[in-house]
Write a structure and sequence with these properties.
heterodimer; A: TIM Barrel; 2 domains; 7-stranded parallel β-sheet; 10 helices; disordered C terminus; B: alpha/beta; TIM Barrel; 3-stranded antiparallel β-sheet
């Protein structure tokens, strides 16, 4: 079963006891009684035999109305959509037509229909005033399933805003794009779409798929005609860091409808971990090119964001673009951060970078001493 | 090396350098050697930085990518034309043509202070608002023009309160373009309360200002100075912007103009050359200048501003920069197709509707009925089908205008049919004899040259672009 990858957020709890079957539940806080739900509810206090309940080993931070998934065979309860999380992301497939060497969530051919269904059910039963992220794999690879997913989440009149990570290739199909836009006309959607190179050669090389650049750019143009909100994403590696200003030139000349350009440091997970030596480039070597790219974006009226960087690697002129982005469940701060006065503003490092994946040379020691004094 | 091929672009020589530009609205500043190498397809002689840039911007393309790059260029062109034909955001209303000033350069858009029959009738208020509602999307800027609009303050007051009711679901802002003559404390208080912006004129120091803008009723400069100081002290939330119209008398006084703006607490200014509408030959001789003379002045002025150690923006330069870098469509004179109706609508005191302020002025001098595109008493729907509007727009697509189609600045400029109609009697005109074209080319030449060859200008211009 692929249930472990239902959500990106790793908040699994060890199940000790339950009277409920496997499946999706709304968590009920016994002290709050209101709310009507279309899926079964569950609580963690055993009051009556008929009521579904669970008992887990650790303390949890579930709130009334959270969506959780119960798995008896694995003795596990997972948070699916949680009000305490900074962001909620649902994984709808593990299949992908890009094979990025830095993929943090490598593709897998496993059947995925239940992932789409569970994601739709979770969204339909959760509050609709916060953004839910949709990720993969490539969520739009199977066009039929993606359209079905959009239809399902339209069925109860909730307009949950979505942030959808897609490589955009499916949108080179105009008919599909029209269908998607028709089904999402009442919904706020941010499309997070990657462009890793300024030309076909570099982009296709980064994503390990011939023809990807062509289809992604066509897709971007098709989405732009409908004035969709697009966040362009570039993951920085050895291959493309020197070309960041040229990627900005491509954006500002060809894709000026892009609302924001996210420049992202490598996350040492999945294939990025396997290919780390060939991919990693210390942040301080990236900054010269990032600075130029961000300036070009800014004077052309496109905003920029820097993700996944430790704050100390970002020079002062670029700090207004900095995002404390590494999720609270997957970041950590090495010991030398304890004396840093800027720690509270810093996203730290990926916990997956502990060991050989952490580049200590990217952090200037004396800077830390002066900062903390 | 991958095989590269050319995509269409225009070029222009700037001394020892070249600027090339394409339908994506992108440009590249090149040395003569680089330009020659590109023309000869000697791509291997370019450094990798330049090569990657011209490839990113679709000036050249690997042969296997040409189809995609062509689609990018046509998509960009289509998007730009589409966005030029979006509903207008600017609505100019002329409450009266009467004025308390006798400005030398304003001969046609004014009437005497006590003249009869030059006020916009209040019975049209609902019709005008109906038009604004019909043509605007979610945003509208209403600018009261004159004459001196404040002479008919009662109209403005009634208009604003009605517009705030009828257009309550839209984001509507109001500006009064005024020379401040009739302003009273009561008016300032109302302006403050209703969050109305004021757009005023400051032509220079007292002598220069009052020579350009004489008034039989007041000392225009002293009144302007006094009013601005009062507003800044007691009504700090009222937004003030000011423009300076350049006449022959201004040419010697760039420093005095900047000093006056600074002295009155402005952090930005708009320096505007005369628009040569309806000038008699002898008046133009007295007030006018050649484009070279204007540019000598403008360079000196910009130099003073750029070297000023503090925040001070010159908006004429900035709007050209915004055209170049952001493909901004907000300036009605620099649009393709032209900004007639789809940039600005003018409701004249008579109830007639014009496509631009210049159309209104040209109508005053020539009486050409073709310039009237509608009337507030008619159905707004009739206006978009007006055959004269379509004829004027049709001739203003810069990509097919002779003299513009091969210009390196065409994606940043406009073909301005009304100017050419006025100056040459033809919507297209001969661009080689056009004062408008001459000034714009010099402006773009200067901006590109300074941006790429003068470190200080590069820094300042970027600061301005980042602020706007």
């Amino acid at each position: 079963m692929a249930n472990d990858v239902l959500v990106e957020r790793q908040n699994d709890f060890q199940l000790i006891e339950t009277n409920a079957f496997d499946g999706l539940y709304v968590y009920i806080d016994r002290e709050i009684s209101e709310g009507e739900f279309n899926i079964p509810s569950i609580t963690d206090i055993k009051e009556s035999i008929s009521e579904q309940h669970f008992k887990i080993k650790e303390n949890h931070d579930f709130m009334h109305g959270d969506i959780i998934y119960l798995n008896n065979r694995r003795r596990k309860i997972s948070g699916v959509l949680n009000q305490n999380a900074r962001q909620n992301t649902l994984l709808v497939t593990e299949k992908c037509d890009n094979l990025c060497s830095f993929c943090s969530q490598p593709p897998n051919e496993k059947d995925d229909i239940h992932l789409y269904l569970v994601a739709a059910e979770a969204i339909n039963n959760y509050r609709d005033d916060t953004v839910v992220g949709i990720t993969g794999g490539e969520p739009t690879l199977d066009k039929e399933k993606f359209l079905k997913f959009l239809t399902l989440i339209n069925s109860n009149n909730k307009q949950t805003p979505l942030h959808i990570l897609t490589n955009g290739r499916s949108f080179s199909d105009k008919e599909f794009t029209k269908e998607v836009l028709k089904l999402s006309s009442k919904r706020e959607i941010v499309w997070g779409i990657p462009v890793h190179g300024h030309n076909q050669k570099l982009h296709d090389d980064c994503v390990g798929a011939e023809g990807a650049f062509f289809e992604t750019l066509e897709g971007l143009m098709n989405l732009s005609y409908a004035r969709e909100f697009i966040e362009l994403r570039t993951v920085v590696t050895q291959k493309n860091y020197k070309f960041l200003p040229h990627i900005s030139e491509l954006i500002t000349s060809s894709l000026p409808f892009v609302a924001t350009h996210a420049i992202m440091n490598l996350e040492p997970r999945g294939w990025a971990r396997r290919n780390f030596e060939d991919l990693t480039i210390p942040p301080q070597e990236q900054m010269k090119y990032i600075d130029k790219a961000v300036s070009l974006n800014t004077i052309h009226g496109i905003s920029s964001s820097l993700y996944n960087y430790p704050l100390c690697s970002v020079p002062s002129g670029l700090r207004r673009f900095y995002h404390k982005s590494i999720s609270d469940w997957k970041n950590y701060y090495p010991d030398f951060c304890n004396t840093c006065v800027e720690k509270k503003d810093c996203g730290g490092f990926f916990s997956s970078s502990i060991g050989v994946y952490l580049d200590y040379s990217s952090i200037s020691g004396d800077k830390h001493e002066t900062k903390s004094s | 090396m991958r095989e590269l091929t050319h995509l269409p672009y225009n070029f222009r020589r700037l001394d020892d350098n070249f600027v090339i530009s394409n339908y994506a609205g992108q440009h590249q500043y090149l040395s003569e050697d680089d330009f020659t190498n590109i023309c000869k397809s000697d791509f291997e002689k370019l450094d990798s930085e330049t090569l990657s840039s011209i490839e990113s911007k679709s000036f050249v393309s690997p042969v296997d990518e040409v189809e995609l790059r062509q689609r990018i260029l046509s998509s960009k062109l289509a998007t730009r034309i589409y966005s030029s034909l979006q509903p207008p955001g600017l609505f100019m209303v002329v409450p009266t043509l009467r004025c308390d000033h006798d400005c030398n350069y304003c001969q046609v858009s004014r009437a005497d202070y006590n003249a009869q029959g030059y006020d916009l009738d209040e019975k049209y208020i609902n019709d005008i608002i109906k038009h604004i509602d019909f043509f605007s999307k979610d945003y509208a800027k209403v600018e009261f023009q004159g004459g001196e609009p404040l002479i008919n303050f009662e109209f403005i007051k009634r208009f604003v309160s009605q517009a705030k009711i009828t257009l309550k679901d839209k984001d509507v802002s109001f500006v009064i373009a005024t020379a401040l003559g009739p302003i009273t404390d009561e008016i300032i208080e109302w302006v403050d309360k209703e969050k109305i912006d004021l757009s005023i004129s400051i032509d220079g120091d007292e002598v220069l200002h009052n020579t350009n803008r004489p008034s039989k009723r007041i000392n225009s400069f002293v009144n302007t100075q006094h009013t601005i100081r009062k507003i800044r002290s007691f009504y700090p939330n009222v937004s003030l912007s000011a423009l300076s119209t350049v006449t022959r008398l201004s040419l010697e006084k760039p420093q005095a103009i900047v000093d006056t703006f600074l002295d009155l607490g402005f952090r930005d200014m708009f320096v505007r050359p005369l628009s040569p509408y309806g000038f008699a030959v002898d008046t133009w001789r007295k007030l006018g200048y050649s484009s070279d003379e204007f540019f000598e002045f403008y360079k000196e002025l910009l130099d003073i501003i750029v070297n000023y150690d503090g925040e001070l923006i010159e908006y004429n330069a900035l709007l050209h920069l915004n055209r170049i870098f952001k493909q901004s469509n907000s300036h009605v004179d620099l649009k393709s197709p032209a900004g007639l109706i789809f940039g600005a609508m003018v409701f004249d005191y008579s109830g007639d509707i014009f496509g631009s302020d210049e159309s209104r002025m040209l109508y005053k001098t020539t009486g050409s009925e073709e310039l009237i595109l509608g009337n507030v008493s008619k159905n707004p729907k009739d206006l978009i089908k007006n055959k004269n509007l379509i004829a004027m727009l049709k001739d203003s697509f810069i990509e097919v205008n002779p003299g513009c189609c091969d210009c390196a600045y065409n994606q940043y400029c406009g073909a301005d049919p009304i100017y050419h109609l006025s100056a040459q009697g033809d919507l297209i005109g001969d661009k080689s004899k056009s004062f408008f074209c001459d000034l714009e080319i010099k402006m773009f030449d200067y901006i590109f040259t300074k941006y790429y060859s003068d470190e200080l200008y590069y820094r300042k211009f970027n600061e301005w672009l980042m602020m706007s």
